[in-house]
Amino acid sequence: MGIDLTAEAASRHQAPTVRGPSEEPVVLTINGTHHTVGLEPRVSLLDALRDRLGLTGSKKGCDQGTCGACTVWVDGRRVLACLTLAIACEGRQVTTIEGLAADGEPHPMQRAFVEHDAFQCGYCTPGQIMSAIALIEEGNAETDEDIAEFMSGNICRCAAYPGIRQAIKDVRDARERP
Amino acid sequence: MRPLGYARVSTVAEAVEIVATDPAGAFLAGGTTEIDLVRLGVARPDLLVDINDLPLHDIDDLPGGGVRIGALARMSEVARTPAIAGRYPGVAQALLLGASQQLRNMASMGGNLCQRTRCAYFRDGVSPCNKREPGTGCSALDGLNRGHAILGTSEHCVATHPSDVAVALVAFDAVVHTAGPGGVRRIPIDDFYLMPGDTPDRENPLRHGELITAIDLPPAGIAERSVYLKFRDRQSYEFALVSVCAAVRVEDGIVTEARVALGGVGTKPWRARLAEQHLLGVPATAESYAAAAAYELSAAVPRRHNAFKVELAQRAIVRGLTQAARGGMR
């Protein structure tokens, strides 16, 4: 059994260290680079990225986990940076929209968004792209219904959804070709 | 947001001790409810204890056919685990119809069970609300109560519990394991959720510093052909107006066993025991299902804006049982 629920397991002990509430050094690994930045524990990953590290690609739409504009990857999974504390990301790998281009070449999904005009104002686009790439990795892009359902956490107020879905299908199909 | 202390812990004992000894301490798992409510000023911890490194992520088969879900397993992981998707399809479907994939990647199963109501008066931080500030009154009784409960309500609170997966877990008699200052215990999930009565601020029997460690599903049985249906204002990424988890065993056209639980209509994830009793021994027909549904909803107390839920819940039960009798979602 993987989980030990005994009283004995519940009594194993080490002394915890409390950090904050004032600012202290926090080590974040963003797009493969280590950054040491002074942060209070209450600072969200989104605010740390945008206001402290100058990585303004991740957008703040609602700041309450409903719009998806702040979508980033933590340890390879798409999550919402607005509901994540930066300090909780110590020791984890954070990937943002700025980390997608390799050697100055846009990621195929970035290129597909341009080709299919998958945006109007562009504010939701970084979150859409971070979700779209993860969607294919998860295996949730197989049908049109799956794409619609598993992209529903990224809202586009300009309603560029047809272009977004076409971009996803293009990248999916290009990957499947031998 | 208020200033916060932060501690990351690596053992259950450490987690329990640090929260138990700090009256303003709280556990932090996925954070999808906790960080939201702290930012709104509705939750007011001084210290968040990050439990994500605890060894409570696994999903294991239990001897005898059940499944143990670690409290820190993420919703998305649980939904795609073959043991859950294959043997408890109603549970997997409930998970996949909740929130968005980003939130499902973050949210832990233990946190899901403890999530707070979406009642706007609770969340706004200022309106009279007995759940947030006992004794101040309930703004939803005569306010905007379209999303509110019709079953299990009291004159002090009509808030619904928002979880989808808890509805399926209630249908199949899951058991919640906890560790706390007083040791470990097992709580049948239907007892884990409390009716509001005159203490709507108390939603579950957890003591301060008591941590959910795992959720056990008993051997599947009838759950193998279960369905979870969700009815809401938009097709995806929305809380339920009404949802139903249903499973039914039919022999020679007669119902021999049934499970029905409702979301979106109860002050707790609602096991429809009246409907289940009414279904035993009746022909497996839409008429029987409708009679059972009417029996369950006869106890409903609708309010100005949510009376539609009485009819919607009955239709949901009929559709859920009909689909379950046809062989479930697969």
TrEMBL record, chain A:
Residues 1-22 are annotated as: Disordered. Keywords: 2Fe-2S, Iron, Iron-sulfur, Metal-binding, Oxidoreductase. PROSITE patterns: 2FE2S_FER_1 (PS00197), 2FE2S_FER_2 (PS51085). One of its GO terms (molecular function) is metal ion binding. The keyword Metal-binding applies. SUPFAM superfamilies: 2Fe-2S ferredoxin-like, CO dehydrogenase ISP C-domain like. Pathway: Alkaloid degradation; nicotine degradation. Residues 24-100 form the 2Fe-2S ferredoxin-type domain. PANTHER family: OXIDOREDUCTASE WITH IRON-SULFUR SUBUNIT, OXIDOREDUCTASE, IRON-SULPHUR BINDING SUBUNIT-RELATED-RELATED. This is (2Fe-2S)-binding protein.
Automatic annotation (TrEMBL), chain B:
Keywords: Oxidoreductase. It comes from the Bacteria. Gene3D superfamilies: 3.30.465.10, CO dehydrogenase flavoprotein, C-terminal domain, Uridine Diphospho-n-acetylenolpyruvylglucosamine Reductase, domain 2. Residues 1-222 form the FAD-binding PCMH-type domain. Pfam families: CO_deh_flav_C (PF03450), FAD_binding_5 (PF00941). InterPro entries: CO_DH_flav_C (IPR005107), CO_DH_flav_C_dom_sf (IPR036683), Diverse_Substr_Oxidored (IPR051312), FAD-bd_PCMH (IPR016166), FAD-bd_PCMH-like_sf (IPR036318), FAD-bd_PCMH_sub1 (IPR016167), FAD-bd_PCMH_sub2 (IPR016169), Mopterin_DH_FAD-bd (IPR002346). GO terms for molecular function: FAD binding; oxidoreductase activity. PANTHER family: XANTHINE DEHYDROGENASE FAD-BINDING SUBUNIT XDHB-RELATED, XANTHINE DEHYDROGENASE SUBUNIT C-RELATED. This is Xanthine dehydrogenase family protein subunit M.
